[in-house]
Structure formats: structure tokens, C-alpha cells
What we know:
- Chain A: GO terms for molecular function: sarcosine oxidase activity.
- Chain A: Pfam families: SoxD.
- The complex is a heterodimer.
- By secondary structure, chain A is α+β, with helices and mostly antiparallel strands.
- Chain A has a single domain (3-127), classed as 2-Layer Sandwich (Folate-binding fold), CATH 3.30.2270.
- Chain A has three helices and six strands; from the N terminus they run E-E-E-H-E-E-E-H-H.
- Chain A has a four-stranded antiparallel beta sheet with strand order 3-4-5-6, with no helix packed on it.
- Residues 104-117 of chain A have low confidence and may be disordered.
- Chain B has two domains: 22-46 and 129-211, Gyrase A, domain 2, CATH 3.30.1360.120; 48-126, Alpha-Beta Plaits.
- Chain B contains five helices and eleven strands; from the N terminus they run αββαβββαββαβββαβ.
- In chain B, the strands form two sheets. Chain B has a six-stranded mixed beta sheet with strand order 8-9-10-7-1-11, covered by helices on one side.
- The longest helix of chain B is centred in the last third of the chain and has 15 residues, at 188-202.
- The model of chain B has no long low-confidence stretch (mean pLDDT 94).
- Chain A binds chain B through residues 8-11, 13-14, 16-17, 62-66, and chain B through 75-76, 91-93, 95, 149-150, 163-166, 171.
Amino acid sequence: MFYIFCPYCKEHREEEEFHPRGQAHLMRPEDPENTSDEEWGDYLFFRDNPRGIHHEMWVHSVGCRKFFNITRNTVTYEILETYPMGEQPTITAESEGVRLEQGAQVADGGWQTVGARPENKALNEEASS
Amino acid sequence: MSDVKEFETRPADDSKAESPLAWSLHEQKSLPHASNPGVILSEKPFLGHLILRGGAIVMDEAVREVMGMALPARPLALVSDDSGERSIQWLSPDEWLVIVPGGEEFALEQKLRQSLGQSHFSIVNVGGGQTVLSLKGKASRDVLMKSISYDVHEEVFPVGKGVSTVFAKATVILRRPEEDGWELVIRRSFADYCYRWLLDAAKEYGVSVTR
């Protein structure tokens, strides 16, 4: 169990109050009439599954029932930031690469896995795309 | 005036009304009674509950005009009037829970609709769907600590705060309107469960239930 910061309630809440709702920042095709089946398929069914930084939509389902975004490291489960709907993340896979190079990654008890350690740089690089 | 159809949900004749705790609390012949209770439990049945949704600025103007109270704009804030009988609680950035003495809610809803006019808002009477349990006594915080993962320490949970959170796996609204008193706004379908849970959790401190 861990605490997640709700950007609407402005405080940390227990994880059980939240639900994940998949990848964030999906854009519906702007011109549906002229969208190919493949593009529709990509929009509807295909999701990124990165190793490392991932932007996800979560909902504070027991609290304020608002959706918001989380930037999360899928390897360490570390939540790097939460931000309201309609905003862009300040931490991305690119900026996080710099963070790892500088050795800023914090080892949280129990959550750390092999690939997240700065010394295993090769593994981290493989992930970013 | 908005063109939404409204109706008085409270029957005008003397039909029998039952609170969600009718069977487990009100119709019991004897209620738990401890000689030196650490927790005093009671229900506040048949209050008027309204959910207001809309923009904070328009809603604030209407609420000030109709109720003479400011809408809590700060997250998780709870404001009460001087008598403590009418309260407004922040639920989300565009949602508030208003609790007024039973019978006042329909008139209040009409006045708010009048004041809000054609702006974009919604008012829903949820009085039939939930009820308020009041928790008093020196051990009430200990009981909450056993049941809720949210921090109920004085520093984190001062008077005038309310959160909706998980209480023994059920969703409740927990609020602290006064120094020595907590309120749980519970759903009708969970009322019996929450009540029994509280009785069980409070047993070790001594619990009295008052009607």
C-alpha cells in the first residue's frame, strides 16, 4: 500500500481510494469520417506498455471522483508526479533519462528491481521509446 | 427560473417514514448501554441532503444569497451555520453536500434554482439515499482509527474538515463539525453494516446508543 497525491483534494490518500484507468493523453482522431480502420484500431485498442516512465490516467473513485494523471515508473512503481486533467507532464521518459544518469533515482524499500538501478544503465536505455 | 421539474419528496400526509436504521436501531426494544461509555452513537435521521454541482463562483453567489453562508472553496472544508444545523461540505471542485434540518430541503432547492436561473448547475435531493450517524465520546477517535485508513489525528483532521473515504471497505463521508463529535454520512444500503461495525468496534470502549 502506498499514498497517492490527489491534485484535486490536494493531499495524499491511501491507494485503495484510487483506480487506474489506463494510458493517459490519448487523442481521439480529429476527423473521424476520414480516419482509416487502422488508425481507429490504434486509437481504440492499442496501448503503450513501456518499461520505465509511463503516463496513466487514474480516478480518485472514493474521494472526489475526479480523473487525473500520474507519471509512474513501471519498473520501480515509483510515482513521480500527479497532475490534473488537461495538463502536460513535467517528467517524461526523456527527462527521466537525465535523472537516472545523474543518479537521482531513490531506492524505495522493497520496490526496487534490478533494472531500475543506475548501474544497470543498459537495461534502462532499452526501455525508453 | 430554470425549467427543471421539481417535486417535494417528503409526503404531506402522515405516512410512516423509516430511516435506513429503522430495524437495527429504532425498532429494537433495548439498545446497547454502557455505564461509562467511551462512545455514544446516535443517528440523525430524516435530514435534508442536497448535492449541488456547478461552477464555484455562481454557486457561491447563490448560496450566499439563499443560505447566508459562504460556499467552502478550499478542498475538504466543511462550514456550518451558527446553530450547527445547516452545513455545506466540499466534496470535489464542483460538488458540495448541503445538509439542512429535515423539511427545509425542498424550499431551499426551489430558492437555489430561482437564484441560479439559467446557469449551468445541478441540484439533487439525496436525502433518501443516505443518513447521518453521530459519534461522540472520548473514544470515538480510537474507533475511527480502527475502521478508517485515513489519518484522524488532531493535526490532520481539525474541526471543520470532511473527507469521503473508505470506512471498513464501505464508502462514507467522514466529517468533524465539532471538537468532540464526528459524523459519518453513510449510504442507505451500507447503513446497517456500518452501524453494526461501529457497535462491534466500539465494544471494548463501552458503547451507548441513543435514539
